[in-house]
Write a structure and sequence with these properties.
Blueprint lengths: L11 E5 L6 H7 L2 E2 L3 E3 L15 E3 L3 E5 L12 E5 L8 E5 L2 E2 L7 E10 L4 E9 L5 E10 L6 E10 L4 E10 L14 E9 L2 E8 L5 E12 L2 E3 L5 E4 L3 E10 L5 E11 L6 H15 L1 H19 L1 E4 L2 H17 L26 H13 L2 H13 L1 H12 L22 H4 L5 H16 L4 H20 L1 E3 L4 E3 L17 H24 L1 H11 L3 H12 L5 E2 L4 E2 L23 H4 L2 H6 L8 H7 L6 H11 L10 H11 L3 H12 L16 H15 L3 E3 L2 E4 L9 E8 L2 E8 L3 E6 L4 E5 L2 E5 L5 E2 L1
Parallel strand pairs: 27-31
Antiparallel strand pairs: 1-9, 2-3, 3-4, 5-6, 7-8, 7-13, 9-10, 10-11, 11-12, 12-20, 13-19, 14-15, 15-16, 16-17, 16-20, 18-19, 21-28, 22-23, 24-25, 26-27, 28-29, 29-30, 30-33, 31-32
């Protein structure tokens, strides 16, 4: 049974009624972020029930020493993780002498949370009766400013309902935090300094090992009946890692008091003196004031939605799902800083360490290319270029490769591999292919070739060298093979000749070879610089072509399909529909040995290849492979339903496409995998966007031209999306019997709709 407590709504995520069992799940779902920092929706006040405390700062990480039963050569020394950052949201509250704690109240009613995605704020309200009999009403609003991205704001209002009350607000900042997922229970932050001045306080701490410095700050204002009560804290408690103020207010019955708290982080990545920077941030935010900060937040989100919104008519759950996905992607990464990337949990939890995976290149880049300007996607490509030296070092250190062969890490913060399971680290090498594919995809979509001679070709050469060295020649088959790998389907470890891996390896070599010839012909100065730098010879190129031209792909003549890997047909091929429901999800119910011997596929594997290289295969081939592999797919990876939704739409299997779309868009809201309390699946959310734009909209780029094959689920009356294609914005609206195009731009654009060419002129409605 999936969870279903989130109320359907077009623009908000809403929870009604207090249930301690749901607190951790809601902390994930109601998370907020602004690209520079983020936090789970923890209560500001002290809470003794089960909770998962989490605040995170983009780009600040710690190398947590790897913990394994026994050591194997090539294991990474550590797992890098985004740290649980010092807590600035905390506000302990005392009411008539009793510590306020929702878990300890005799009654909690009218509890409601709302994450308003349109305006970018999070609200919580409730009525509560304390053990001492005092009844209160509370309303708390919190947001992380998009404009001042080092700043967060809380407005915490309390109204006594049955009598006058003494309310004591005790706001604090605390660097004494630990990670839920620490390997060795060690502390990650070393306190350096604690300071306060009137209503402002600062705790400066440094990470062990990586030596990032962060000043966590707060500035408090007390209001009574909406008027500023000009008081300084009546006492200050502090130790070397925490500072707490105390403000006592006599509040008449039915009058509202509140604390407005400005807080956040200034970090050494951006400032030489983090405390001076924090003082400036407080000064700026305080001079703008709460109401204007909120108005600015609403305006900033309106600008984002103007470009990235997808509307769905007639299906509120589908609409809520896609907006939640788009909202979380924008909260996680806004593309302003090429040092940053997109972690699979974003700012919503600690699983996967908050690090960079192949998800960015395979799933996220299309979303950012189409909803932002191309510089954002270029920043994501630049991130990998900046880590090329580390990728070369990884191939050398872990696999003994030479001559500049590059293996990009499965998981990274700074370019070093830090995933600590060998069957992933050393075997799931297909991630190298996704990085090359992203370069191709960027050029195909934006038309900007300049990235390749400037930076991309060096990355491609390193990757092609890797595939050339990783392939083994089989005298038995007279072909090249790639042995001992894990494909995208992680329920198959250490297999030989995974189709997707072999196919993308061949493609990488051929694509790199073609780009070398193009750069040689059209950018001779760049060509000379690169060839001298990487020391590439014609003899080496000939060897590459020998490997790519003779790559082996496992195939069944009987079924007329490529096999996921050698020996796939030797398994007991029982389809998923015949599995007892009590056995699902298999990754939580079965031993790993049993999973590995089964035919069950965690996520699109062979079909991932058909998604990337659609033009290389016929529709009939796609259908054969889809009909064979889909029945064995358990979709226990968040990255699976979106690819299947796109493929099902391409095959006009619209009921399946719609089911997969709902699953990918509401994966977290409905908690399909029973794990949302650990955080949301941010990178797969970009796949949800693709399942509408590329799946139902059928958008493709071929020969510099946009192609559409629009389809619509029967459950919808219509849907629309915008894409920024080569600096012109095209709005596409699909209804049951027509598709409309409107162009915001300077020049006409040619599009191909259902195989026919259509001319779209600026600001003219074209109906097909």
């Amino acid at each position: 049974m999936n969870q279903d407590y989130i109320k359907p709504d077009h623009w908000s995520i809403i929870e009604e009624g207090f249930d301690a069992e749901r607190v951790k799940s809601s902390e994930s779902l109601f998370s907020i972020g602004n690209g520079a920092m983020g936090q789970r929706a923890n209560f500001e006040e002290h809470y003794t029930g089960e909770t998962f405390q989490g605040s995170y700062i983009a780009g600040i990480y710690y190398p947590d020493k790897t913990k394994v039963g026994w050591w194997k050569n090539g294991y990474p020394e550590y797992f890098a993780k985004v740290l649980n950052a010092p807590n600035w949201i905390g506000i302990d509250i005392e009411i008539d002498g009793e510590n306020f704690d929702l878990h300890a109240c005799t009654k909690v009613s009218n509890f409601r949370r709302e994450l308003n995605m349109k305006e970018g704020w999070y609200d919580r309200s409730f009525e509560a009766t304390l053990k001492n009999g005092t009844e209160i009403k509370a309303n708390i609003r919190r947001f992380l400013s998009l404009n001042l991205d080092e700043t967060g704001v809380i407005n915490y209002e309390i109204t006594p309902l049955n009598k006058e009350a003494v309310i004591v607000y005790k706001p604090y900042v605390d660097a004494g935090v630990t990670n839920e997922d620490a390997n060795w229970e060690e502390k990650f932050w070393e306190p350096l300094d604690v300071k306060h001045d009137k209503n402002s306080a600062f705790v400066t701490a440094r990470t062990f090992k990586t030596h990032f410095i962060a000043t966590t700050f707060m500035h408090n204002t007390i209001l009574l009946d909406s008027k500023n009560v000009n008081i300084n804290p009546e006492s200050v408690d502090s130790n070397k890692e925490k500072i707490q103020f105390k403000y006592a207010v006599n509040v008449p019955q039915n009058v509202t008091s509140s604390i407005q708290k400005i807080g956040g982080y200034t970090v050494s990545m951006n400032h030489e003196n983090t405390q001076t920077a924090a003082e400036k941030v407080i000064e700026t935010a305080a001079s703008i004031g709460y109401n204007q900060l909120l108005k600015d937040q609403i305006d900033a989100w309106a600008k984002i939605w103007e470009m990235s919104d997808i509307t769905i008519e007639g299906d509120v759950k589908a609409q809520q799902g896609i907006r939640f996905n788009i909202f979380q992607l924008n909260q996680t990464y806004l593309g302003k800083d090429s040092r940053l990337n997109i972690g699979p949990k974003g700012f919503t939890g600690e699983k996967y360490g908050g690090s960079t995976y192949w998800d960015t290149e395979a799933y996220c880049i299309p979303f950012y290319m189409a909803t932002k300007d191309q510089q954002v996607a270029r920043n994501l490509l630049t991130y990998r270029y900046n880590q090329l030296d580390k990728a070369i070092e990884n191939a050398q250190k872990n696999l003994g490769f030479k001559n500049g062969a590059a293996l990009y890490p499965m998981v990274t913060m700074n370019g070093e591999e830090c995933h600590n399971e060998w069957e992933i680290t050393h075997e799931e090498i297909h991630r190298n292919g996704a990085i090359a594919f992203a370069i191709f995809n960027y050029h195909r979509y934006t038309g900007d070739y300049s990235y390749i001679p400037e930076k991309g070709l060096e990355v491609l050469i390193g990757i092609a060298r890797f595939w050339h060295q990783r392939a083994s020649y089989s005298t038995n088959k007279n072909q090249y093979m790639i042995l001992g790998v894990t494909g995208p389907n992680e329920y198959e470890n250490n297999v030989n000749n995974n189709f997707y891996t072999n196919y993308i390896a061949k493609w990488c070599i051929d694509y790199t070879y073609d780009q070398i010839q193009k750069v040689k012909a059209e950018y001779p100065a760049d060509y000379k610089r690169i060839i001298e730098k990487v020391n590439l010879s014609d003899f080496e190129l000939t060897e590459w072509k020998e490997v790519s031209g003779n790559m082996y792909f496992p195939y069944s003549d009987e079924l007329d399909i490529y096999l996921q890997q050698d020996g796939f047909l030797d398994k007991d091929l029982v389809p998923v529909k015949d599995l007892d429901k009590s056995q699902r999800p298999i990754n939580q119910k079965w031993s790993w040995d049993r999973v590995l011997r089964s035919p069950y596929i965690k996520q699109a594997d062979t079909l991932q290849g058909f998604y990337f290289f659609e033009d290389h295969f016929t529709k009939e081939q796609l259908e054969k492979h889809f009909d064979f592999y889909e029945p064995f797919t358990v979709h226990e990876s968040s990255l699976s339903p979106c690819v299947h939704s796109i493929q099902a739409a391409a095959l006009d299997k619209m009921d399946m496409a719609y089911t997969f779309y709902l699953r990918t868009s509401r994966l977290d809201l409905d908690d399909y995998n029973k794990e949302v309390e650990e955080g949301c699946h941010i990178t797969s959310m970009a796949g949800t966007w693709m399942s509408i734009v590329e799946g139902f909209g059928g958008m493709r780029v071929k020969d510099d031209t946009l192609h559409f094959t629009p389809r619509i689920p029967k459950e919808w009356e219509g849907y629309s999306f915008k894409i920024n294609f080569r600096n012109q914005i095209l709005k596409v609206s699909v209804h049951q019997n027509e598709t409309n195009f409107v162009l915001e731009g300077q020049h006409d654009i040619k599009v191909v709709v259902n195989g026919k060419e259509v001319l779209v002129e600026p600001n003219n409605l074209v109906t097909v």
